Amino acid sequence: MTHLRWVAALAAVVVALVVQVSLFPHIAWHGIVPNLCLLVVVAAALTVEAPFALVLGFAAGLTLDLAPPADHVAGRWALALTIAAFLAARVRQDQKPSALAVVGTVAAASFVATSLFALSGVLLQDPTMSVAGLLEVVLVAVVWDVLLTPFVLPPLMKLFARLSPQWATS
Amino acid sequence: MRGFSGQDGRERRWTGLDRLESRNRPPRSLLVALVLASITLITLDVSGGGSSPLEPARRVVGEAFGPAESAVAAAVRPFTAVPAWFRSKDDLADELRDLEASNAELRGQVELAGFDRNRLEQYDGLTTAAEDLGSALVPARVVALGSRQSQSFTVTIDAGSEAGVGPDMTVVNNDGLVGRVLRVTRSTATVLLVIDPDSTVGGRVGSSMEIGFVTGSGSLRQEAGLDLRLVDDASVPSRDDTVVTWGSATGPYAPGVPIGTITEVYSSLREATQRAVVKPFVDFSALDVVGVMVPSGAESDRAVIEADGSLR
């Protein structure tokens, strides 16, 4: 069952990444697109046990760092998504999370991940960007992620819950 | 499958609490391990610089994702044309008028630019003697764009090493300079756009032949433009002047490719330099068909546009 879950999770990350770089730029707002990989990681963190979500966050971040259009220092998204997964896994309760809790978690995770990525860029002086530009990117990214939550999170959470019965949250 | 079914409510509640506790305690050791792994990767990549140990990994991931991105982009392309069907005759008439106006303006520019280009060619002809500037173009389409969250302005194109594309080649479209190739896989290549804050292009002001450096501003808006700093502090660039690449036959950017027009000039007293804003000719928010400049006669898996305009 664990293997199947890993396959499903990694397939979800691959699909999310390809859609994120090839489809969403057509409807992007000033080049800012929804971070679908982050949504997959949050869905895992809200449904299955924390170690799985943490490792998935690291793997998804590493894929974002290495897949073609990316040219920033590798490891920055891996760091950001690992910490986002850790925070999202802490939020989860025993009951199935309410819609509001899911949206709140996505917004918080999106804010934390994008800000961490931006901050690591400032520290490494990878690209030199103005603070106003960074704030705009972070806020618009949060809005995008929250907008896509109703369409992406429920099916993914159902999938993860079905593939991990011992953690199923009826 | 369900290990906890069949127990009474009270029991379930207790096990529920148990699970709650175990679940709300994500393993700190794993978090620390993964964070340290990320930091190790960052350190490796930063200290590696150009020959970073992660380049092979990037290449492998690129080989895997390149075809998928090309396929999705090809599937999406028919739908991106849909908004164009719902346009009224008035819209089209408006657009025609705008295009006629800009066409006339551009024709004026081109006539002047031709003069400048001729001078540049003469100059190049004098200095580089028999250097062959003729190069062929490999046509390609943009299949993926990096997001603003990732803070780098890079795109993936669907031509790779099999099409004769290699690192540091110049990428243009029919408006002007797009960027340069960073790395290639078999079927795709990653292109650094000139608007990336890390991108610096050697530029030459068309009318005065002064040289300078054009840096990206990190914005997709065309008005935000590029930054031009001239090497000679004394010369003042003039508005509406065309900037072309200074380039060399061996460096990343081929010479004489139009970059943009100067829209504003600032002089900084403190630094005693001239800074000009260059509006690029290329609309980077609507990139589609681009050409990669390859040496004339290069092997390719597709039709190549030769320097004299013929298809091969």
Automatic annotation (TrEMBL), chain A:
Membrane topology: Multi-pass membrane protein
Transmembrane segments: 6-24, 36-62, 74-91, 98-119, 131-153
Annotated keywords: Cell membrane, Cell shape, Membrane, Transmembrane, Transmembrane helix
UniProt superkingdom: Bacteria
Name used for this protein in its record: Rod shape-determining protein MreD
Gene Ontology cellular component list: plasma membrane
Record family assignment: Belongs to the MreD family.
GO terms for biological process, alphabetical: regulation of cell shape
Subcellular location: Cell membrane
Pfam families, A to Z: MreD
Source organism per UniProt: Nocardioides cavernae
TrEMBL record, chain B:
Alphabetized Pfam families for the sequence: MreC (PF04085)
Listed GO CC annotations: plasma membrane
Coiled coil: none
Record carries keyword Coiled coil: no
Biological process per Gene Ontology, one example term: regulation of cell shape
InterPro entries tied to this protein: Cell/Rod_1, Cell/Rod_MreC_2, MreC, MreC_beta-barrel_core
Top-level taxon in the UniProt lineage: Bacteria
Keyword annotations from UniProtKB, A to Z: Cell shape
Domain Rod shape-determining protein MreC beta-barrel core per the UniProt entry, residue ranges: 149-293
Function: Involved in formation and maintenance of cell shape.
Family: Belongs to the MreC family.
Official protein name in the record: Cell shape-determining protein MreC
